[in-house]
Amino acid sequence: MAETNQVEHEQISTSLEVEKIDRNLFRSKSLWLPLRARGVFGGQVISQALVAATNCVDPVFALHSLHCYFLLSASPATPIIYNVERVRDGKSYVTRSVKALQDGRVIFIMVCSFQKPEPWQRQHQWPMPNVPGPDECELLEARYDRLLAKKDINARLREWLEAVVTERARSPIALKVAADADISKDGVERYMYWMKARDIPKYEAAFQKCILAYASDLQFIGAAARTLGLKREATGENRLAMMSTVDHALWFYDNDFDFAEWLLYVVECPRTGSGRGVVNGRIYTQSGTLVAVAAQEGVVRADVRGPLKDDGDLKKGSTSKL
Fold first, then answer.
1. Is 95 in the active site?
2. Acyl-CoA thioesterase-like N-terminal HotDog domain: from which residue to which, for each copy (predicted)?
3. Is residue 27 very low, low, confident or very high in pLDDT (cuts 50, 70, 90)?
4. Which of these is catalytic: 54, 227, 245, 285?
């Protein structure tokens, strides 16, 4: 794979594109390695797997949920093969599983479920938080640009910020901070972002969900690190030593949203511990419709060493791929 395929594409359709090589087999065409990442962007793997699965389902069924695990970091230098298994075809629900393989190893697994919509059923949702609208908020790259204007930042941080600005500016997903570390009345710390796909046509609902799956992995597990006060550029016990996604889930409750318009991503971290953190997310349209609910757990490690009981514990830990 060419070096140019290791950056994020400006068009989301290119980032999600897969090549069909058999009835249930698909292959990635491009892979993106984000700054400081250990492997290919997880949201891209999720969305490409979802495109493959959707191609193996009758369009009368609409995606309503997906659950996946990241088993190994994916290299951007080798295409990923997505193997779809047609697990179940029912009257109301259809189930597909996807195994993503690279160099003969399973690096990712996903189970997704599709439903014939039942819009006549009763509905309920939590209300959207009160936040400034997208027109009142600045793009994430603009925020970093303001930090670059400061004269007292060190050379290493300046270099990283410049790289982030470049990466964000060319990303197919635009992000704006709606509320940074908002504390609710019940003491819950929330991070809220406006997000949308840049310059896309009115795609069909099935592909809109694939795009949303891609974006749902942006600014997500990082909320766990931020809640703990961990930063990569910090020193001592506040330094973020490692952050990596373990699993990811999405539940869809709307088939009519348009990701060419701004959606609000509300992210909370209810628990961290043992080098892990779990985050929950809710995704709303500007009119307040709760489109999807997300959850993710990941490895979130500070630069500290806990006590070991004996040498056996050290040996056990040394074989971990994480």
1. no
2. 37-115
3. very high
4. 245
